[in-house]
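Researcher: First entry.
Model:
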Amino acid sequence: MACHLFHRGAWSLQISRTSNRLSVSFSTALPRRHRTNDLPTSSTRLPSNLSSTHHPLSTPLRAFSTSDSSHQDATSKSPVQDPATLTSGFNDSPLILDEGSRQIDWSRSFHGLSTEAFSKDSAAILLAPVDPADVEIKPDGIIYLPEIKYRRILNRAFGPGGWGLAPRGETIVTAKAVTREYALVALGRLVSVARGEQDYFSPEGIPTAAEGCKSNALLRCCKDLGVASELWDPRFIRGFMKERAKEVWVEHVVTKKKKKIFLRKEDAVVYPFKETKNTAGVF
């Protein structure tokens, strides 16, 4: 006899199977929406010829089969939902306020947008030229400012607590990425709206990708304030790469594959790469 026990939240489901009989036991601590005799009790036994599509527990039972191969497939599946089906989001839509509420519903409102300019002191901080020492280079040659430095600029301009990111919709998870729309609010006024995105490589990385998605939205919102605007200026990019970047050949220490990467001139190649020469004629 094979016995399987499932737990989720406040309920548990036990399924016992023999060669000619299937026994199901279900228990829960939550208030029941059905009559007692509508749910299976600990002694309920289902006839072997009963189709799973005619029973309330058809979804859990559908994974089991009388063949050993299909039983092994069902028990070997990961408890994490297939990321390809995670397209309906986290069900974390912003709270919708009543129309008569005095609070501003930042999930829909454009309150304060372009009503007046910020103070000269705040503008000077936001529009200050980017410090080349703060600019980083990705291996593919893309230059960027780390997201923590955008937060520091906003803290200097508006003060800690004087700005924030308000979600404008639900977090959407696709097979490879997380995306969500955010609004940047400063001193009680809407400044900008942008959609962030972040790739992930396994379901366990979705929480980290959700945080990266928020930071990506912040970066995009800051463009409307003129923060680090040089990073989108082609002439600045070409000059920066010429003066402060270098291109080197590296070899992956595990796969032994070679490729070219970009670095700041003062930076060294780090693991998992090591600097090498293009002796194999790879271009």
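Researcher: Second entry.
Model:
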Amino acid sequence: MASLRGMQQPELSKKLFKIIKSENHAIGAYESAGRERISIASQISDWGEATGDDSVSDISDKVGVLMSEIGEQEDLFAQNLEDYRTVLKQIRNTESSVQPSRDFKAKITDEIQKLKYKEPQSTKLVQLEQELVRAEAQNLVAEAQLTNITRQKLKEAYDLHSAAVIERAEKQILLARHMRRLLQLLDDTPGIPSLSPHIFQLLKPAQIPPTNPTSPPVVPGDVRPAFEHSAQARQVLNDAEEDLREWTPSLDAVPSAATEMGSNLMPSPSTVTGGGAGASTVDPSVAGGEEVAMSPQHQQQQLESPLKGQRDVSGSTAVGQEMGYQQ
């Protein structure tokens, strides 16, 4: 069905239709990536618990929390891209509305050329030439409206797109930095297995794991100390949650003079003197519509009668609650 709709698109809007369709696929990929990231985060937490190492379990659980939040940012990014895609549709719909004006003008021009060749003295030539003048005037207005809406919505669309990219990047960098803080809490000093002295004496020198000369050796019978940084690890998650809550965009403004444009997609009367430019051949309602579907009669009416106006991963941490404002 999507391919069929693409074939039915007016020639003027086919390229943008393809872009919008491709963006839809990209948005779906980001949503899928976010879901996979959240699933992997849960698996990391489960794996850490299964190791039986309290330190690994605690750290991997909290790493999973931050990774889950990174996945949620992918979903938020996809939502913001959908807003940008919606703005592009307004340009596409306007292009679709202008196409009949171009076609009608070309049709009259073709009829005049044929009639001049077959019946150079025909009285119908005068009528056709008058229709051509009207068609050219209407097309001129329609093309101006298309240029206006294209420039305005192009800026608006990629303002949204770039802001979404920056938000996603800055928040994920923030989360990644807190993840690195967690990793600093895990002691990875190599240790010797907890063996009885009798078994230890039976081992050959090559089979005895070396110890780190810069740290106290772990001798046979010793066990690793309990994880002492649980409170610090919890504070890392609290800091991450607070940083996400306090994050605000810091962007250079994209100025726009589109506020001077009237509802007919032309400069408002306050900015233009004279009434000649007030006519509209593009229905402004299509600018925000999802699809354009006009009957031939409606298209002809537009051309002949201009329109007027257009566990942490399991939910024990507050970081998971951060998603409340994103839905």
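Model: Note on the second entry: Confidence is low (pLDDT under 50) at residues 274-280, 288-327.
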